[in-house]
């Protein structure tokens, strides 16, 4: 990310966008957050943009002299299974639009996130390597994997400086998640404080890689600030911080709320979760741009509960 860029963020009303926009404003001149839906309190310079509207996206790039795009708009894993064709279009047509605009207007950089969802049932589950079997069996995972290949292609063939992270499940207190499989790890904190009980849609023993939002935002900024010549991965970097099961996060919450209880009613998201890695090897990110997470499960749990208590006035 350039210190003096005009930056467009798509899908800015979502879980990551709501926090990334603030962080980008601290290091960039002008940030234009955009989304298909207009938020209740739109941030400064907000633009309404459906990422399937190629003409409007091109107009915005020209009119606002955009130099970097953070392309966050997407349909996540659970919602994607409910509407596969919409997920295919939103998650892939828009990636090609962004990459084409980056090539045509010689944008300084673009960021297009990927996910642990690119892995599948045949992928090694523990310490999943950077390069390994990828056989996603969700439409979301298929779109993210294809998107990664397009990023690599545009970097190699068209010289686009496109960067990407395979985010694990993200946990934050500022917004609710947008329809993924890892959403339970946010919902559980709200229910722990509101009712003292959570009915979990993932089985108690399913471990998934997770990360606290401040780490995810910092990783994004650090990757974008890294010199291009240090980067050895042009598809998307594995990124890790912690892994836990619903049982383990319950125990972490019970250290603060001893009466908190959980029950389990696994649904279709449990099958998706079981097809994803349990833990991730992010040694390429650590080596290439010195990635180091700050939050583990206990540290994240303490911070989440204290921040949500304040927000909820408890
Ligand atoms: P989210 O679902 O919270 O937000 C996505 C935003 O995109 C929403 O505000 C939605 O209104 C918007 N959107 C949907 N369709 C659109 C369209 N046609 N045009 C414009 N905007 C549209 O998602 P998020 O959690 O903020 O994820 C952002 C990115 O990070 C996505 O690419 C996602 O795949 C990736 N990611 C997220 C996680 C996570 O745990 N949050 C993990 C891995 C990868
Ligand atoms: C989801 O569960 O779909 C997302 C992701 C891990 O990509 N949170």
Which keywords apply here?
UDP-galactose 4-epimerase, domain 1, binds 2-amino-3-ketobutyric acid, binds nicotinamide-adenine-dinucleotide, alpha/beta, 11 helices, Rossmann fold, three-stranded parallel β-sheet, 314 residues, 2 domains
In short:
This protein is α/β, with parallel strands linked by helices.
Layout of secondary structure:
Layout: E1 6-10, H1 17-27, E2 30-35, E3 47-48, H2 54-63, E4 68-71, H3 77-82, H4 84-104, E5 109-111, E6 114-115, H5 139-158, E7 162-163, E8 165-167, E9 169-171, H6 184-194, E10 197-200, E11 208-212, H7 213-225, E12 237-238, E13 242-244, H8 246-254, E14 261-264, H9 268-275, H10 283-289, H11 297-312
Parallel strand pairs: 1-2, 1-4, 2-3, 4-5, 5-7, 6-8, 8-12, 9-11, 10-14
Antiparallel strand pairs: 11-13
Helix pairs in contact: 1-7, 2-4, 4-5, 6-8
Give an account of the 3D structure:
Helices cover 42% and strands 15% of the residues. The chain has 314 residues and is an alpha/beta fold. The chain has a 6-stranded parallel sheet, with helices on both faces. Helix 1 links the parallel strand 1 (6-10) and strand 2 (30-35). Bound molecules: nicotinamide-adenine-dinucleotide and 2-amino-3-ketobutyric acid. 2-amino-3-ketobutyric acid (AKB) binds next to loops.
CATH class of the largest domain: Alpha Beta
Determine the CATH superfamily of the largest domain: NAD(P)-binding Rossmann-like Domain
What sequence of helices (H) and strands (E) makes up the elements?
EHEEHEHHEEHEEEHEEHEEHEHHH
Structural class label: alpha/beta
Specify the overall morphology: globular
The residue fraction in helices comes out at: 40-55%
Number of helices: 11
Q: What is the percentage of strand-forming residues?
A: 15-25%
Sheet with the most strands? 6 strands, parallel
The total strand number stands at 14
């Amino acid at each position: 990310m350039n210190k003096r860029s005009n930056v467009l963020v798509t899908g800015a009303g979502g879980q990551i966008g709501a926090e990334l926009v603030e962080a980008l404003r601290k290091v960039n001149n002008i940030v234009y957050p955009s989304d298909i839906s207009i938020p209740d309190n739109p941030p400064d310079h907000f633009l309404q943009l459906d990422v399937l509207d190629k003409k409007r996206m091109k107009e915005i790039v020209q009119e606002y002299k955009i130099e970097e795009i953070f392309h966050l708009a997407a349909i996540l894993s659970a919602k994607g299974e409910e509407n596969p064709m919409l997920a295919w279009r939103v998650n892939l047509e828009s990636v090609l639009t962004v990459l084409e605009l980056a090539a045509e207007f010689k944008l300084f950089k673009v960021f297009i996130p990927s996910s642990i969802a690119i892995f599948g049932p045949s992928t090694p589950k523990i310490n999943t390597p950077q390069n390994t079997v990828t056989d996603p069996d969700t439409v979301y995972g298929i779109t993210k994997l294809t998107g990664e290949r397009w990023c690599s292609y545009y970097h190699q063939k068209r010289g686009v400086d496109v960067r990407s992270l395979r985010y694990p499940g993200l946990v934050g207190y500022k917004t609710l998640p947008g329809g993924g499989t890892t959403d339970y790890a946010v919902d559980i904190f709200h229910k722990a404080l509101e009712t003292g009980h959570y009915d979990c849609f993932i089985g108690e023993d399913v471990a998934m890689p997770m990360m606290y939002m401040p780490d995810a935002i910092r990783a994004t900024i650090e990757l974008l600030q890294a010199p291009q010549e240090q980067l050895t991965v042009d598809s998307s970097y594995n990124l890790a911080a912690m892994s836990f099961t619903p049982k383990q996060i319950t125990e972490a919450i019970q250290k603060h709320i001893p009466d908190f209880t959980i029950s389990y009613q696994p649904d279709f998201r449990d099958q998706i979760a079981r097809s994803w890695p349990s833990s991730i090897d992010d040694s390429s990110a650590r080596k290439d741009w010195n990635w180091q997470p700050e939050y583990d499960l206990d540290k994240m749990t303490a911070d989440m509960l204290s921040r949500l208590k304040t927000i909820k006035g408890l």
